[in-house]
Amino acid sequence: MQRPDMSVAIAGIEMRNPVMTASGTFGYGAEFADYLNLESIGAMITKGLSLKPKAGNPTPRIVETSGGMLNAIGLQNVGIDAFIEQKLPYLKNVNTPVIANLYGNTLEEYGEVASRLDGLAGVAGIEVNISCPNVKQGGIVFGTDPSAAQEVVSLVKKNTSKPLIVKLSPNVTDVVVMAKACADAGADALSLINTLTGMAIDLERRRPVLANVTGGLSGPAIKPVALRMVWQVAKAVSLPIIGIGGIMTGRDALEFMLAGATAVQVGTASFLDPSAAQRIAREMEEYLVEHDIASVRSLVGALEV
Amino acid sequence: MQFKAMVLSNVELSPGYFRMKMTAPQELASSAPGQFLMLKVNDAIDPLLRRPFGLFDVGSFLPEYAGCGAQIYCEILYKVVGKGTKLLSALHHGDLVDLLAPLGKGFDLGPAGEEKVLVGGGVGLAPLYYLAKELKNRGEKVRLFAGGRNRDDILCITEFERLGVETYVATDDGTLGERGFVTQVLEPHLAPGTRIFACGPTPMLNAVAKMAQKSGVPCQVSMEAYMACGVGACLGCVMKGANHTEETPDYRCVCKDGPVFDSFELQWS
């Protein structure tokens, strides 16, 4: 039999397979070049970029929990200018779409970073992280308030001609409300879920383990929550969806596709297995071969309830 | 590189401290003292992340079975502190583990003719053994200052002595060597023409770094930190660089920029 067709497209971004690397877990790509073929994966998403370089949080910043990990890195990044100067030239030579993840500390910063990225060759699309506190408005998180999220997305949309993916926070009462708000504001695709807020406590010291007290939970522990949210959002909005949350194997990735995702992002898995994204794409293909499925796209939303 | 290693031996040296020997590919023969590996003890998701260990030794051996040429091995020294190291301590000859190695930046051995001073505590002795072996291979004069809470924390001293290293020991309770901190034993031996290599708990490194600065002796420290990836991506293991401020952040990755740093590169409390 012919090899199955693994290609998918998200808002016009053509990918050789549905496996993308999640923001903040794959550096700027080059860090992983010794461990996998960067041209074997669907797309790479950069570390979250901000207008100015960001120091990030004090340490400890990470801790392992049951089946997962908490991180409070604090969005440390080199800033948009250094990204364009130092990181992008390398990525331009890799034949895999690069999606720039961006965030702002204020509404205006979101617009500013988006406009800097607009028109840049080598950036196939942008993913907006709306799970950040709005510094000017008492730290309320953009991504937990539908009208704030709508404002951010509309502003970014105005400042870019590139495909716009909005990354949703799971730390909300109803993720569908947020998804609809972002869709109405002009998002071309949605990615979910970002990390779940959590904490870890050191019993002996009677102190939180993380210097930041709370952090974002990722890894296999969050997969059921992520699947549920992808499924809910896929039923409610017509935008393409990128499923994220604890994907460790090809089977995990295919479950997200059944739930309605057109593509997936691999995050924490890359930390423990730097070749995870390539392996997962291969495992997905093997599943398709074993089950005589011609195209991976036929699985999108194919869940029978 | 990423590879599967077979456990050759896994021995408890003193209560809670183990020394594990594993097979390794030829590429590890060109690793440097101070570099480390990331080990995944099994395929399960709990424990999820790899654990970092300094290279205690790298060398070659001739397997006992016929038809096989010399084989590279690597060794680590570890203390059982949690779930991951507990599982590690239960491994036997023939078990497989998954490794990323060699990682990070190792020690700069410095010019010949200096007196090399090694300072370690507990499992902090791990990278110092590989270092001592390399230094003695070059015919250098090497002294080791080992410290711990009690004699159980003083590991592999005989191995160091076999290399021809002069050893000094201090324990908090005086059960081995002098009673007190290793830094007190170290101080009178620091003079121009010496070079310090230190690995151990942060308060000890802090004291050593300050002492080195006072005596004008070059000092490299090998740091330990929580880390998820080991390749510079997660940014979980950062330390503050010497000139770090909130406005002009200067964070260094222990995994990629270290684990060995010149002591003046870092900000000490």
Q: Rough shape of chain A?
A: globular
Write down the CATH class of chain A. Answer: Alpha Beta
**Rg of chain B, Cα atoms, Å:** 18 Å
Overall body shape of chain B: globular
Unreliable stretches of chain A (pLDDT < 50, length at least 5) are none
Query: What proportion of the residues of chain B is helical, as a percent range?
Result: 10-25%
Average pLDDT number of chain A: 95
Our count of domains of chain B comes out at 2
Percent strand of chain A equals 15-25%
Quaternary:
heterodimer
Number of helices of chain B: 5
Q: Report strand order across the widest sheet of chain B.
A: 4-3-7-1-2-6-5
**CA(first)-CA(last) distance of chain A:** 30 Å
**How far is the first residue's CA from the last residue's CA of chain B?**
35 Å
Largest interface: A-B, 35 and 29 residues
Order of helices and strands of chain A: EEEEEEHEHEEEHEHEEEEEHEHEHH
**CATH domain class name of the largest domain in chain B:** Mainly Beta
Strand coverage percent of chain B = 25-35%
What's the CATH H-level superfamily name of chain A? Aldolase class I
* Structural class by helix and strand composition of chain B: alpha/beta
